[in-house]
């Protein structure tokens, strides 16, 4: 089996939740953090591990920001193969990559620019020895409530994890899982959920608090403090 690794960064969304009313309609992955576009920081975090042969960024057709955001980065290409959903974008990027079935594919959120090099290395080390692959994740520390406007129940947090990225699987397995999920109408919120729906159990690899996803307007200030 091959130990070749490519990384895919789906960057076709707009990140509406991260914008305050009246802000410019710049997709959140291009908003600056410490003077650099968030997407550039996320890609740079992946390039910190020399075992990743290439980072492939999937953007929406007509994207007018990616050239300026990523110019000059080594081992990085960008393609206008983004789709309507995350799953569509990852599937399009996989097809565009031409990766062999046994190649490793590592998918990382553009909105996680704080990925530490040691967490990335920990994931790669664990997955290269695993028959399925896995993902970075953190055990739930807080009490978890279920409900809408009022609490309906308290959930047992034992065995609950917060999924992060990167998530790393063989290209063929991920391709097949995404296709099967689309045909079956299974909601795919991350790559691991597609692999799970295909009957596999991805490995959970301890992640990092610093690797949180920039989702809400206040998250930009918090991430800048981490960086």
What is the typical, i.e. mean, pLDDT?
A: 93
Q: Helix count? A: 7
> Whole-Å distance between the termini?
37 Å
Query: How much helix is in the residues?
Result: 25-40%
Low-confidence stretches: 15-21
Strand order of the largest sheet: 5-4-1-6-10-7-11
For the biggest sheet, the summary is: 7 strands, mixed
Q: How does the helix and strand content classify structurally?
A: alpha/beta
* Strand residue content: 15-25%
Number of strands: 11
Order of helices and strands: EEEHEHEHEHEEEEHHEH
Cα-atom Rg, whole angstroms? 17 Å
Global geometry: globular
Regarding quaternary structure, how should these chains be classified?
A: single chain
Quick overview:
The chain is an alpha/beta fold and 227 residues long.
Describe the structure.
Helix content is 30%, strand content 24%. The protein has seven helices and eleven strands. The strands form three sheets. A seven-stranded mixed beta sheet has the order 5-4-1-6-10-7-11, sandwiched between helices. A two-stranded antiparallel ribbon has the order 2-3. A hairpin with a 2-residue loop joins strand 2 and strand 3. Helix 3 packs across helix 5 and helix 5 crosses helix 6. The longest helix is centred in the C-terminal third of the chain and has 14 residues. About 3% of the residues have low confidence.
């Amino acid at each position: 089996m091959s130990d070749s690794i490519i990384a895919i960064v789906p960057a076709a969304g707009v990140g509406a939740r991260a914008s305050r009313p009246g802000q410019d309609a710049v997709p959140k992955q291009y908003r600056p953090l410490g003077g650099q576009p968030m997407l550039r920081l996320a890609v740079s975090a992946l390039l910190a591990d020399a075992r990743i042969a290439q980072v492939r960024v999937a953007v929406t057709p007509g994207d007018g920001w990616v050239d300026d955001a990523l110019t000059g980065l080594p081992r990085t290409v960008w393609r206008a193969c983004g789709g309507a959903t995350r799953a569509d974008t990852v599937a399009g990027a996989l097809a565009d990559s031409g990766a062999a079935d046994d190649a490793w594919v590592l998918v990382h959120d553009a909105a996680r620019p704080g990925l530490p090099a040691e967490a990335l290395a920990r994931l790669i080390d664990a997955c290269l020895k695993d028959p399925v692959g896995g993902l970075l994740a953190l055990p739930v520390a807080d009490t978890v409530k279920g409900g809408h406007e009022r609490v309906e129940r308290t959930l047992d947090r034992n065995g609950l994890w917060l999924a992060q990225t990167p998530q790393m699987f063989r290209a063929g397995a991920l391709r097949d899982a995404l296709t099967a999920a689309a045909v079956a109408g299974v909601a795919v919120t991350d790559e691991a959920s597609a692999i799970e729906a295909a009957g596999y159990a991805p490995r959970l690899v301890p992640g990092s608090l610093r690797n949180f996803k920039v989702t809400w307007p206040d998250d930009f200030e918090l991430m800048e403090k981490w960086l």
